[in-house]
Amino acid sequence: MSETAFRQGKKRFFDNKKFPRGFAKSGDFTLAEENLLTLYGETMLGLESGELQSANAEEQHFLSVLANPEAAESKIERVWMKYVRLARGRKRFHTLNGRSKPDVSEDYTEDEPSLTEED
């Protein structure tokens, strides 16, 4: 992993509410992204909530990225923006039903023999 001035959290970061099986097993994050979230997630959450103050330029830039997500440069900043979007954004809902309804004007019973007729 590249050298970073970003502080690691005092404990590993998990989100059991939105990702109960873990970040990587959710299918949304790679193993590398899961590693970044678990190592630095507590610090990023603390900086975002205001519980922690930035200790260096990298953490200060992270605070500016929170206001402007397009400015994310580092992997840590990009993975946090991805986490925020997936954990706090609207959940996509996919259905198997289509919007178009079948045309009921056709009568399919004309070609079928009647069940009441005896041969």
TrEMBL record:
Residues 105-119 have a biased composition (Acidic residues). It comes from the Bacteria. Residues 95-119 are annotated as: Disordered. Pfam families: DUF413. Belongs to the MaoP family. This is Macrodomain Ori protein.
